[in-house]
Design brief:
Elements: H1 22-31, E1 36-40, E2 43-47, E3 62-64, E4 68-72, E5 78-82, E6 89-91, E7 94-99, E8 102-104, E9 107-108, E10 116-118, E11 122-127, E12 130-132, E13 135-136, E14 143-145, E15 150-152, E16 155-157, E17 160-161, E18 199-201
Parallel strand pairs: 1-4, 1-18, 2-5, 3-6, 4-7, 5-8, 6-10, 7-11, 8-12, 9-13, 10-14, 11-15, 12-16, 13-17
Length: 202
């Protein structure tokens, strides 16, 4: 897990390792005004950089500020795992379309949305995802949204809030489309390519 070296230069390249991480891809999308698709191959994507109350995506949760599509291969095999003591996604602007991933490990003390938080100036569409083992000490163990949320979650499992019960419905998910099948990546990362024409592969 590393931030983008120079957000806005049309290159997804982290510092210091000069690879394209999930964090770097989101930061580059934010800096360029949004509209990109980040494609995640099967694997586990660790979110490890500690530092809450920072809203540019450099540390802590993954801050989404502009329109973006995050497209996983298939939720059971494409995992975004937070280990830095923060929520996983903070959708602060634009529309975030998140599909085909497992979002897990988010933890917030005295704040809302352990897995995903959607702020009043943003929207989110969550489809065929699994939200598991996320926690908030206030509201929204899995998801907290200040605006109407479009969701077709694959599973909301073992995510809870101290002061509010977690959703327990488990809608059935379609299997992944053949075009989205990807090989297992031992060290998932975004291929360091230019964002034009609005697509990045991890």
């Amino acid at each position: 897990d590393e931030p983008d070296a120079k957000p806005g230069n049309h290159k997804c390249k982290s510092t210091p390792s000069k690879v394209c991480t999930l964090r770097a891809a989101i930061m580059e999308n934010n800096a360029l005004g949004g509209g990109n698709t980040i494609v995640l191959a099967a694997g586990t994507y660790q979110v490890t950089i500690v530092g809450d109350n920072e809203n540019a995506g450099k540390t802590g949760d993954l801050d989404i500020l502009q329109n973006v599509t995050i497209q996983g291969s298939y939720a059971p095999t494409t995992i975004i795992n937070m280990t830095a003591g923060d929520r996983v996604f903070d959708v602060r602007g634009g529309v975030a379309n998140i599909s085909g991933v497992t979002i897990q490990g988010g933890y917030l003390d005295n704040d809302t949305g352990g897995g995903i938080a959607v702020q009043t100036s943003a929207k989110a569409k969550v489809h065929d995802d699994t939200l598991a083992n996320n926690h908030s000490t206030t509201e929204g163990g899995a998801i907290y949204s200040s605006v109407p949320l479009a969701t077709r979650a694959r599973m909301l499992a073992a995510s809870y809030a101290t002061t509010a019960s977690a959703p327990t419905s488990i809608p059935k998910s379609r299997p992944p489309a053949p075009s989205l099948k990807c090989q297992q990546s031992p060290r998932p990362m975004v291929t360091p390519i230019r964002l034009s024409p609005h697509s990045m592969s991890i």
